[in-house]
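Notes from hallway chat w/ T.B., transcribed later so I don't forget. T.B. wanted the structure written out for a chain they're using in a teaching module, and asked if we could keep both sequence and C-alpha cells in one place. Agreed to drop them here.
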Amino acid sequence: MWTGLRRYRAMRLVFRSPFWRRSLTALNGCRNQGDAKNLRRRFELLRAELKRCDWSDAVSEKFGEIKAALERTGQRIEDFDVAIAAHAIVYDAILVTANMDHMGRIPSLSIEDWSA
C-alpha cells in the first residue's frame, strides 16, 4: 500500500489542501488526455481510499465565521483555504498542510506540517 495512504488512514480524517487542488486538476486532466480511461481509473482508486466530508450547514456557518474574523483583523486568505479550514474544524479533523502561514491564522484549527 502507498506509504502516504497509510498516514491518511492513521487519522480519523485528514484534509490536505494541495491534494484537493491537484485532484480537481487531475480530474480535468483525465478528461483531456489520450489515455483518459486508465488515468481516471487510477485516480478513482486513490480517491476511494480517502474519506471526504459533505459541505453541511455547519460548515457554511463556520466558513462565514472564519472569513469575517480574518477580514476584521486584516488577515484575509483564499476562500478555498477558509473552506478547508471550516470543514476541518466542524468535523474535528487535523489539517495537514505546508501552508502554516495562512492556516495558522485560524484559531481552533488543528494543523500539522508533514513537509519536513
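Follow-up for T.B.: Confidence is low (pLDDT under 50) at residues 1-18. Might be a good example for the class.
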